[in-house]
Amino acid sequence: MSERFLDLDSSRFCEHQEETAGPAKAFLVGAGPGDPGLITRRGAEILGIADVVLYDRLVADSILHLCRPEAELICVQTLEGTHPQRWPEICRILVEKSLKHRVVVRLKGGDCFLFGRGAEECEALLAENITYEVVPGVSSGLGGPAWAGIPVTHREMASSVAFVTAHELGSRETRMDWGAITAFPGTLVFFMPLIQIQNLKDRLISKGMDPNTPAAFIERGTRPDQRVITTTVDGLVESSKELESPTLVVVGQVVNKRKDLAWSEKRPLAGLKILLTRPGHQAANTVAHYQRLGALVENQPLVKISANPNPEALQQAISNLDQTDWIVFSSTNGVRCFWQALKNCGRDSRSLGRCKVACIGPSTANALMPYGIKADLVPSEYSSEGVVSELGKYCAGKNVLLVRASRGRDLMQKELGRLAHVVQVAAYSHEDLLRLPQSRLIQLENRFWDWVVLGSSTIAQQWFDLTSQVYGNNLPKIATISPVTAEVVITNGKKPEAIAKEYTFAGVAKAIATSVRKYI
User: Fold this and answer.
1) Closest to 116 in 3D by CA, of 69, 55, 157
2) What is the pLDDT of residues 403-426, one digit of tens each?
């Protein structure tokens, strides 16, 4: 969302800030329970114009990516002291930044006003006459159970739900009526229970709750690595031994509905840890797609897309477009960089007036649409071979321009060159990553990742060049986007466990899901 604002001049940007933000200067925004798709549209909109964002540690990185690149991001957990000790400093910084900047966001996990100290932060702003707006978020007390297939209310089981903090159990001056809580005629959802789990169990049973009452722990609710453990009140302590925060406990008969209503674990990639290797600017949509399928996903770029190494050749090709019959794009990067070059030459899409356009696959064809161009040919097989097979029927004796990277396979140039006059130009180059971050190597050595996805022959070779120091069987299983990429894997002495039948990253996801079902 933040990309919408990158090309605006400063005066127009300030005007847009005022239009979107309204009279408020500070915003308390609920980030939701964990899954980045659960932030509200209003929350995402405000993040896209924020100057400063103070955020909780558990907020997903992909939510922070909604912020402008120049926004100042402050993780409040990096401040000194324990959470109670940090809170006055958080309020001080929130006030200080709000007095200096147009739009300041306090980004909080879940909902701002449910066990989040949001009211106290509003009071700190109010004391300094700073206008603010509260943007509600999906509470983890609702999102976590829903992701676990546990309805917190049910017509036949529970007509009410209570959200309770277990934090006060360790305090002698608790204001909570545990007799009333135990007798509550509905579902109980306990926040922050792990430290006080023994006290929680003892208090519920001592106040008359049936020890066999169903209960469920929900760890990291709505995240790809969510874990759910069903138990009873009597089994709370034993079942919690391996759990970590953030965790909820749901107590009540509705927990029994999970065996029928559980859905998130049934997604095709549920529970899998998948490492993508796409260039950074291309990864966001693929990461989001794999997350929706249930995977824990990160992207590790192995190459960087950099400027055209020979702009003169591309400029010459652009000047000859009035003599070009077909333009072939082999990647979305080629489309993007070609249009940038077109713009640099003082031209636009009208320069392609007499040209027909072929694309190697649907993603590349979709990249043309913002420029008002619809591909004339997309082969049924999304590969260089597919382009040669189908374009070869139409290009005999024609002038064909191939737009590609500075390195890669020359199959299209060689095969189409037998039929047509072919000019091949590089619209961009690949800049190799010199070494993997140490943290990534440690992950690989510890077998953290289940799968790595390789999306081209170039990236596949780069993967092996960079992971040569990771020995034995520690490397994750390999999924490739095509048989051509798989050949590079085999050449390096490894076997690809999944090869996409449809040569897209969605096709890779399907191949992984099929392979996983094979191994179950």
Assistant:
1) 55
2) 998 887 889 999 999 999 999 999
